[in-house]
C-alpha cells in the first residue's frame, strides 16, 4: 500500500523528509497508545513510566516541528538553487520548491499538535488523579 494512499495529499510533497516525519508520527501514536494502556487499562499503574511517556510526547512532538522546519529550509534552498540555475525564471519552479518546503512544516506541526494535545490530556488527567 502506498503512503500517499494512507496519508493522502498531505505527504505528496515532503521530499526527503517524508520518511522521518512518518516515523515520528508512528512513534507519537505509539506513545499515545502506551499512555492509554498505562492510564486506563492496567490495574497496577507505574507513575515513572507514565511520566516517561509524557516526556516522550513532548520530545517527539518538538522533534517533529524541528524536522518540518528543516524540510522547509531545504525546500527553499532547492528552490533558490533552481532559480540560480535557470536561464529563464519560471514561477512554476519557485512554487514547486515553496510547496514542498511548506508541506514539511505543515506535516511536522500537525504531528506536534497531535503530541501536544495528547500531552495536555494525559498531564491534566494525571494531575486530576493525583489531587483526588
Give an overview of the whole structure.
The protein is an all-alpha fold. It has one domain. Helix 2 runs antiparallel to helix 3, helix 2 packs parallel to helix 4 and helix 3 runs antiparallel to helix 4. It is rod-shaped. 27% of the residues are buried. The mean pLDDT is 81.
Report a brief summary of the structure.
By secondary structure, the protein is mainly α. The chain contains four helices and no strands. The protein has helices at 3-7, 18-41, 47-85, 91-131.
How is the topology of this model organized?
Layout: H1 3-7, H2 18-41, H3 47-85, H4 91-131
N- to C-terminal separation? Answer: 47 Å
Q: Looking at the structure, what is the overall shape?
A: rod-shaped
* Total domain count: 1
- How big a fraction of the residues is strand? under 5%
- Number of beta strands: 0
Helix coverage percent: over 70%
Uncertain spans: none
Q: Assign the structural class, choosing from mainly alpha, mainly beta, alpha/beta, alpha+beta, or little secondary structure.
A: mainly alpha
- Estimated radius of gyration: 19 Å
Secondary-structure element pattern, one letter each: HHHH
Average pLDDT confidence is 81
Task: Outline the biggest β-sheet.
Answer: none
How many alpha or pi helices?
4
Amino acid at each position: 500500500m502506498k503512503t500517499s494512499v494512507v496519508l493522502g495529499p498531505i505527504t505528496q510533497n515532503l521530499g526527503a523528509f517524508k520518511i522521518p516525519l512518518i516515523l515520528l508520527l508512528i512513534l507519537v501514536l505509539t506513545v499515545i497508545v502506551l499512555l492509554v494502556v498505562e492510564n486506563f487499562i492496567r490495574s497496577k499503574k507505574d507513575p515513572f513510566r507514565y511520566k516517561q511517556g509524557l516526556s516522550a510526547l513532548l520530545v517527539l512532538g518538538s522533534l517533529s516541528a524541528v524536522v518540518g522546519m528543516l524540510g522547509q529550509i531545504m525546500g527553499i534552498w532547492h528552490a533558490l538553487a533552481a532559480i540560480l540555475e535557470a536561464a529563464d525564471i519560471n514561477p512554476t519552479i519557485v512554487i514547486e520548491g515553496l510547496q514542498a518546503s511548506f508541506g514539511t512544516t505543515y506535516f511536522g506541526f500537525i504531528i506536534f499538535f497531535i503530541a501536544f494535545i495528547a500531552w495536555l490530556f494525559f498531564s491534566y488527567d494525571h494531575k486530576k488523579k493525583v489531587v483526588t
